[in-house]
Design brief:
11 helices, oxidoreductase, Bact_Lucif_Oxidored, 43% helix, TIM Barrel, Luciferase-like_sf, alpha/beta, two-stranded antiparallel ribbon, 355 residues, 8-stranded parallel barrel, oxidoreductase activity, acting on paired donors, with incorporation or reduction of molecular oxygen
């Protein structure tokens, strides 16, 4: 479809899922306490360096440090001044939308209007039995919870009736956020129906790019925009964020050599968490994943700039989010990637895309 030019500032950010894995190079493993404190420190660095967004994910497993993004983001809000704070993502199927809204409205007040919600369906299923939900209701729960969350976001009193939670009768939802409404994004991995839903509702669209080429995700973006325009939303209303794994160093060779042990270790662990036996990612396959057409963001600042600009030509998105702290990458290297992203990559992206 034709894409109308929208004059919107381009945002660059960092996000974490807070995995707890041993460093395959040194064999060391940080505990949950250290991991959370390093995440807060990473957010401080990102804010001080001038990045636009910081995201924290949600998991309910002992090999992840964060089960409540809003708690960690509240701590970050007190340690930062300007950076936007979002979940990446909130598992909306298994959380009460009323409680979720109240938590993020409180975060918005604490942060002076910097809170956002990115809602997704989650890659793991532990939260279903943990909070008393039936996995067979996976899609229906997400649909109902999303609609309720969006209604609560619009008004401070609500009357509502659904299938999965008690009815609300002229209920006051408090507190209200500092912003007029909380920005809500829907996180999508590869499902056209999810992208279409986001467009139909006029939420932002966050695409989690785990692997493949940039062209692979174009159908999601087209479905999102088509659905949004057909519902009367404008291109200005329809915001797109893309996220991916990556690592930035002074040269491509340095980036590949430093990141490969961690990334291959991370993929092996993820496959095992999902019940699949897996060996380490072969180095030659990893090399192929660093090319311009791949959605892996690995290389020098210039190579990251070229890849994001290439991607922007295809998508016309307004936000790029990088995940780099995976597979036991030591904090000092995470800090270096944040520094390079903020000082050498982001200014060029903002300048070039604004043209």
């Amino acid at each position: 479809m034709d894409m109308e030019k929208v004059d919107r500032p381009f945002e660059v950010g960092i996000f974490t899922l807070a995995d707890i894995m041993n460093n395959p190079v040194t064999g060391e493993t940080v505990n949950a306490k250290q991991r959370i404190h390093e995440i807060i420190e990473a957010a401080k660095l990102a804010d001080e360096a001038g990045l636009d967004v910081f995201g924290v994910g949600e998991h309910h497993r002992l090999d992840y440090a964060v089960s409540s993004p809003q708690m960690v983001l509240s701590a970050i809000a007190q340690a930062t001044k300007n950076i936007k704070l979002t979940s990446t993502t909130t598992v909306l199927n298994t959380v009460d939308p009323v409680r979720l809204f109240e938590d993020f409205a409180t975060l918005d007040l604490i942060s002076n209007g910097r809170a956002e919600i990115t809602a997704g369906r989650g890659a793991f299923v532990e939260s279903f039995p943990l909070f008393g939900y039936d996995f067979h209701d996976y899609d229906a729960l997400f649909e109902e919870h999303l609609h309720l969350l969006m209604e609560i976001n619009k008004r401070e009193r609500i009357t509502w009736n659904g299938k999965f939670r008690p009815a609300l009768r002229d209920a006051e939802i408090a507190p209200r956020p500092y912003q007029e409404q909380l920005p809500i994004w829907i996180g999508v991995g590869g499902t056209l129906a999810s992208a279409t839903r986001a467009g139909r509702l006029g939420t932002g669209l966050t695409i989690a790019m785990i692997g493949g080429t940039h062209e692979r995700f174009l159908p999601l973006i087209n479905a999102y925009r088509d659905a949004g325009i057909s519902e009367g939303f404008t291109n200005r209303d329809l915001k797109i964020s893309v996220s991916g794994h990556g690592y930035i160093a002074n040269t491509m060779d340095q980036a590949k050599n430093e990141f490969y042990p961690h990334y291959s270790h991370y993929l092996k662990a993820i496959n095992e968490q999902r019940g699949m036996r897996s060996g380490l990612l072969p180095r030659n396959v990893f090399e192929q994943m660093t090319g311009l057409e791949s959605v892996m963001f690995i290389g020098s600042p210039q190579e990251i700039i070229e890849k994001v600009l290439y991607q922007h030509e295809l998508y016309g998105h307004s936000r790029f989010m990088l995940q780099t702290d995976i597979g036991g990458v030591p904090f000092k290297k995470i800090a270096k990637t944040i520094e390079l992203l903020a000082t050498e990559v982001a200014p060029v992206l903002r300048r070039e895309i604004s043209k």
